[in-house]
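call fold(seq) -> tokens
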Amino acid sequence: MRLAAPLHGLASRPARCLLIGLCSTMPLHAETSVTHWAPSAISSPLFESHGAFDYARDDFYFVRSSRAFRGWRIMVSHCGADGWETPVDASFAGDGVEADPFITPDGKHLYFISTRSTDGRRHADLDIWSMDRQADGKWGEPERLPAPVNSRSQEWFPRPSADGWLYFGSGRAGGFGKTDIWRARQDASGKWRVENAGPAINTAGDEYEALPSPDGRRLLVEADGYYMATFENGHWSPRKKLGPDVNVNGTEIGAAFSPSGKSLLFARDSKGPLSGEFYLWQPDGPEAWPPVCRARQDDPAA
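ret:
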């Protein structure tokens, strides 16, 4: 089986915008299209969120938890003969709560958060972990990132940017509010340094998740809703709240950009028979993403 390759063209925009690179700028208040993305094997009465596509293995990773958004576990659904298969625990599942998977665009690294045991000791706080892709295509052993990236407070939603920074949320001391967005960078010697993402991103309230766009020019911030900041003149501009099509009831979380940066997959508590469900936002018009799970014999590129 394979995933249909995502198309990066944009039929609804003039061709000239592709030439000058303006199509990558997601408008803040344009007429938008939000649709429910609910493959039958993945959507359930429980809470699904934080999706991540593994294009190298035709897999979809996501978080499944209780309807009350507790007891997080990372699940994986494989692309099979009949479409997305029944999800199972990720191969690297540990003994704690785990969430927020992210696969780097080159497919070589996977980040997640976990309270799993280390050295025989169970952790109370969520830490950032990572693993590398092995030669056989499988994931290697998870490694906990060292201090100062991880702290005795909570860390969540690790998301690398195109410029080498790793963005994440944390409740550590020294921020602007209750919880803030931070970023970390590793130098040539392997030493990490961490800094606050700054007042354009953080407030006296809570900021939880920050998602850099694939080109690094935008930063989606989840606080009391979704906000967007743009990178201008060497720094982030003050964030602006996105429109009501995305911010419906304040439960929007766990966003992922398409490879082109023109689409956004996120979760929302639907407040109905189902709990957390995936939704797709395509403000610039449709593109062929999320990828379609289909049989190889039906794929002319196979």
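Helices lie at 15-20.
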